[in-house]
Amino acid sequence: MEEINDNLEAQAADEGAQAAPAGTAAATAEKARGRRTEKIGIVTSDKMQKTVVVRVDRVVKHPVYKRYVRKRAKFMAHNEIDGVAIGDQVRIVETRPLSARKRWRVVEVLRKASK
Predict the structure, then answer these.
(1) CA distance 52 to 91
(2) How far, in Å, CA of 75 to CA of 105, rounded?
(3) Which residue, of 5, 20, 75, 101, has the greatest Cβ tally within 10 A?
(4) Is the torsion defined by CA of 80, 90, 39, 44 positive or negative?
(5) How far is CA 111 from the centre of its chain?
(6) Hey, CA dihedral for 36, 42, 44, 46, is it positive or negative?
(7) Which contacts qualify for 98-105: CB closer than 8 Å, 24 or more apart?
(8) What is the distance between the alpha carbons of residues 50 and 96, in angstroms, rounded to a whole number?
(9) pLDDT tens track of the chain, all 115 residues?
């Protein structure tokens, strides 16, 4: 009986080692780091070099009054994309700290501002 249990444990260990996909290093690194938060907002300032200020609007339910309230937050985001102007809708993604106030990066321009 003891031999059967040992054999089953050994087979399970072998199957677990074989079932792991080849790109597990990247998958485990992403799990350890976590999924990067993405936000969509409107560019409110582009006066700095390689930095834009993005306003993100969201709607939350008030805990007491149960009415929906609009909340705003401003994020400073690193911008390597040419042609990002005030009023553009952009997607920003969380990144490592780039300066004292910059922890976001512009990934893409979703909609250009109408002139």
Answers:
(1) 12
(2) 10
(3) 75
(4) positive
(5) 19
(6) positive
(7) 101/76, 102/51, 102/76, 102/77, 102/78, 103/75, 104/39, 104/54, 104/75, 104/76, 104/77, 104/78, 105/77, 105/78, 105/79
(8) 16
(9) 555 556 556 555 555 555 445 556 555 555 667 899 999 999 999 999 999 999 999 999 999 999 999 999 999 999 999 999 999 999 999 999 999 999 999 999 999 998 7
Query: Letter for the amino acid at 103?
Result: R
Please, are residues 75 and 104 in contact by the beta-carbon 8 Å criterion?
Answer: yes
Strand pairing partners for 71?
58
Q: How far apart are CA 69 and CA 72, in angstroms?
A: 10
Beta bridge partners of 94: 104
94 is written with which tokens?
């969380």
Whether residue 73 contacts residue 55, with contact meaning beta carbons closer than 8 Å, is answered with: yes
The pTM (predicted TM-score) of the whole model is: 0.69
What count of residues does the chain have?
115
At which residue do the structure tokens 């059967």 appear?
4
